[in-house]
């Protein structure tokens, strides 16, 4: 496995570029001349609780500068961090992210309490935390790419693309996407390094951030299942004597069950908390009158104080998450397939095509590997001569993961969220885009970027250090943008998708207009 040194210049460039992109995002969304005054806020029918208490001068300033990052679902996270799970439909949002906001607001930002109200401190906390998680997520993706792809060039370019992700606005706003991406990519990297327990802890934390983190249990099951399959294929002439089959099976099953239990535990505990809060006897709670009035006006359900219980409490498996998705947001199989949703399907078209193309490309390059689910022992892998790049054997489980998310999201979810759903959950979107740019633009890797002694699948040496010639940029993504007039049409489409969604997301989302 390829190790990444802390002194790796590409890692430093990934972090530097991520910081610059996040700073530019915050600067653009905070510019009233560009967004808030040019495009008035849309009167959206979204969750918008009253501000209590009345905001002061400092709060108004924070709202003016950062208010664009508190739209749509961000209101839920900020409200939960401020007042807990007051309304039933708030329970669609898992607790680790709002708890982190509250901890930072009352911890490191405590000196600002005299100047700002709690909500403003929470919004500042969201900006700081998401900026940190975005940078850490980019570096984790680079390390993961180096370990899986074994091609530093593609890993480097993919990590840079993550910083201009089509889901960029959700990585910056008070959403949980940045935190989830950072935890998920870090967990995948640790698993590739063989650090199963640390990986399990990170995956467990990720499942406390977003419900789709439960799918990550598949990485553990596949990793241990693959190891077991390889053990069974050891030749009879092997010098090493293998333990009995039942011992081998137990050595694989026990850690797999424990890891999966750890990943499911945060979600299960939160479902239990929700059941106790909304289905059990509720203690007297003081709810401000404006929030009670909001519940009456919008039909929001509060924790019962009169013994009345919501219908999901009497279900055989009282899972509030699925109930909210069904009743409040009409999420279900093919429910979004309506003529009036065509614009939303068009919004999801680029990421759908890219994800489908990635899966097809991988299957076409590795038909036998896909048919055997990657469980067939190969001599090339044992000798360390496996193909490098996007089509290498190690990418198989990531392609399956991304395809499962894509198919489920397309058929069962509000389809416009596919861009941020995949962009924060799977490295495939970035790996495949980097693969296309790497193949389409051979001029991108100049002489100064070559590292003698090692070869990539295309016969070129992998990227090892940035060019040292004066006036040459060590960032291949910047070099692509500088030479945009001469790149291929396919490269223009890939970059156009990333940059247009990066910018349009800021313009539309920050003004309460519908976006992905």
From TrEMBL:
Main location class: endoplasmic reticulum
Protein's pathway: Glycolipid biosynthesis; glycosylphosphatidylinositol-anchor biosynthesis
Domain of life: Eukaryota
Source organism per UniProt: Zapornia atra (Henderson crake)
Gene Ontology cellular component terms for the protein in this record: endoplasmic reticulum membrane; mannosyltransferase complex
A molecular function GO annotation: GPI mannosyltransferase activity
Similarity remark: Belongs to the PIGV family.
Function statement: Mannosyltransferase involved in glycosylphosphatidylinositol-anchor biosynthesis.
Membrane topology listed for this record: Multi-pass membrane protein
Residues spanning the membrane: 121-142, 154-176, 249-273, 345-365, 386-411, 494-515
Localization annotation: Endoplasmic reticulum membrane
Region entry Disordered, spans: 450-470
GO annotation, biological process: GPI anchor biosynthetic process
UniProt xrefs under InterPro entries: PIG-V/Gpi18
Gene that this sequence comes from: Pigv
Enzyme class: transferase
Protein name, UniProt field: GPI mannosyltransferase 2
Assigned EC number: 2.4.1.-
């Amino acid at each position: 496995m390829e190790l990444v040194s802390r002194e790796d210049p590409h890692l430093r460039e990934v972090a530097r570029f991520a910081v610059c992109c996040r700073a530019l995002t915050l600067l653009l969304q905070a510019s009233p001349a560009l967004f808030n005054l040019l495009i008035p806020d849309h009167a959206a029918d979204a969750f918008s609780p009253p501000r209590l208490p009345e905001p002061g001068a400092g709060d108004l300033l924070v709202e003016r500068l950062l208010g664009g990052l508190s739209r749509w679902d961000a209101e839920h996270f900020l409200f939960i961090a401020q007042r807990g799970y007051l309304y039933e439909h708030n329970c669609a949002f898992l607790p680790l992210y709002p708890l982190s906001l509250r901890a930072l607001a009352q911890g490191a930002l405590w000196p600002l309490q005299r100047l700002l109200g709690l909500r403003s401190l929470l919004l500042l906390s969201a900006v700081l935390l998401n900026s940190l998680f975005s940078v850490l997520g980019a570096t984790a993706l680079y390390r993961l790419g180096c370990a899986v792809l074994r091609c530093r060039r593609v890993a480097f370019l993919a990590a840079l693309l993550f910083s201009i992700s089509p889901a960029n606005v959700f990585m910056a706003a008070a959403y949980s996407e940045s935190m989830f991406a950072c935890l998920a990519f870090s967990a995948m990297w640790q698993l590739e390094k063989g650090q199963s327990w640390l990986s399990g802890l990170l995956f467990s934390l990720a499942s406390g951030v977003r419900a789709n983190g439960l799918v990550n249990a598949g990485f553990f099951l596949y990793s241990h299942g693959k190891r077991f399959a390889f053990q069974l294929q050891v030749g009879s002439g092997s010098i090493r004597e293998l333990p009995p089959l039942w011992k081998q099976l137990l050595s694989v099953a026990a850690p797999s069950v424990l890891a999966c239990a750890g990943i499911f535990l945060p979600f299960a505990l939160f479902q239990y908390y929700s059941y106790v809060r909304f289905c059990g006897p509720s203690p007297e709670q003081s709810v401000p009158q404006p929030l009670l009035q909001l519940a009456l006006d919008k039909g929001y359900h509060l924790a019962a104080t009169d013994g009345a219980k919501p219908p999901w409490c009497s279900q055989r498996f009282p899972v509030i998450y699925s109930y909210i998705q069904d009743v409040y947001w009409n999420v279900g199989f093919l429910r979004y397939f309506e003529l009036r949703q065509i614009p939303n399907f068009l919004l999801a078209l680029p990421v759908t095509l890219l994800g489908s193309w990635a899966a097809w490309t991988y299957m076409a390059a590795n038909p036998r590997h896909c048919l055997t689910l990657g469980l067939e022992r190969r001599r090339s892998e044992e000798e360390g001569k496996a193909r490098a790049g996007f089509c290498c054997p190690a990418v198989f489980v990531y392609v399956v993961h991304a395809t499962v998310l894509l198919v489920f999201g397309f058929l069962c979810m509000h389809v416009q969220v596919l861009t941020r759903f995949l962009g924060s959950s799977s490295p495939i979107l970035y790996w495949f885009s980097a693969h296309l740019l790497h193949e389409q633009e051979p001029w991108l890797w100049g002489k100064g970027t070559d590292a003698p002694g090692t070869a990539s699948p295309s016969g070129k040496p992998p990227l090892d250090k940035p060019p040292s010639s004066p006036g040459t940029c060590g960032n291949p993504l910047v070099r692509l943008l500088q030479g945009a007039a001469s790149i291929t049409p396919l490269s223009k489409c890939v970059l156009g998708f990333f940059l247009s969604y990066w910018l349009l997301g800021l313009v539309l989302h920050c003004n309460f207009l519908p976006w992905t």
